[in-house]
Amino acid sequence: MANAMLQQTVGGTLQLLSNSGTHCNVGNRSVRLLPKGFKLEVEFSKRGIYSSGKRKFNVIQASTSQTSVVGPLLAPSSSDTVDSHMKSNEVALILIRHGESLWNEKNLFTGCVDVPLTNKGVEEAIEAGHRISNIPVDMIYTSSLIRAQMTAMLAMTQHRRKKVPIILHNEDERARAWSKIYSEDTIEQSIPVITSWKLNERMYGELQGLNKQETADKFGHEKVHEWRRSYDIPPPNGESLEMCAQRAVAYFRDNIEPQLLSGKNILISAHGNSLRSIIMYLDKLTSQEVITLELSTGIPMLYIFKEGKFIRRGSPVAPTEAGVYAYTRRLAQYRQKLDDMLT
Ligand SMILES: O=C(O)[C@H](O)COP(=O)(O)O
């Protein structure tokens, strides 16, 4: 893995801006570069022009800093004292189902149809933000649907750390180039927001747009409950929870879990069923147990990830935050540092 290779290097630091996925020779080492648009900080003892195959990688900066593999916005600065002490063996994982959407309000099956929040959904998102306002967030993952993205951005308006969540645009070279930020300080005060369709709500097939009550009247309550809450029975031409899990849980394990392991505190804003499939994985629920798992809109759930294990720390049921989250010692320290910083 590039990470392992990078940790073997010694000396000052050489920053390379790669423009394609390839290898480059840094001194006498061959370093694998990450896909386009990622910055590689590799440790090396001298400056120069290094080439790999046909491409040249210009040295754009030499400085002494931690060896790390960073995306444009993926690593808060280690000089940021409020956040840095959280980089030990325990990180926070917050899951939020989006606030009420316009089709939730109309009781329509929504699935992957991209509808926005209602006023109530906006209020729920802001209340969710208040409840997580003292919990560290280094990265945010959302689905590609606006209701989840609105929920994340509205919630972060309440966060006391006041970092700016910025949706990353890596869909192509132009998007990457046109959304580039040219200030390290500004990057340090930002939180990368990564969107992925793999976190989308389960695709409800031929039920999308139908009224849930009318559908139950037509097909029977039992059948509709089976489509909505069973593990392996899909709605007509739609996804079962199992099929949704195959993309959502795979995305979590391949993309989010490595960030947790590297010490990042993560917020995921997604959907009732894509989150049910992830919670089934986190809590090791059986296909029977997951049937009764229901998620309310806009209610944050807190997990602590420690020594490779996910420990659920409760989620707010009371109208106030106090007594709802079982703060760990480190979360309490983080909150104290925010208090000190803001007083
Ligand atoms: O997609 C929808 O209709 C809702 O977001 C979730 O629907 P469900 O609670 O019926 O699964």
From TrEMBL:
* Record-linked InterPro entries: His_Pase_superF_clade-1, His_PPase_superfam, PG/BPGM_mutase_AS, Phosphogly_mut1
Pfam families, A to Z: His_Phos_1
Record SMART domains? PGAM (SM00855)
| Gene3D superfamilies (alphabetical) | Phosphoglycerate mutase-like
Indicate which residues the UniProt annotation says bind substrate: 97-104, 110-111, 147, 201-204, 212, 228-229, 272-273
Q: What is the enzyme's main class? A: isomerase
CDD domains for this protein:
HP_PGM_like
Protein EC: 5.4.2.11
Q: Which family does it belong to?
A: Belongs to the phosphoglycerate mutase family. BPG-dependent PGAM subfamily.
Q: What is this protein called?
A: phosphoglycerate mutase (2,3-diphosphoglycerate-dependent)
Please give the organism: Gossypium darwinii (Darwin's cotton)
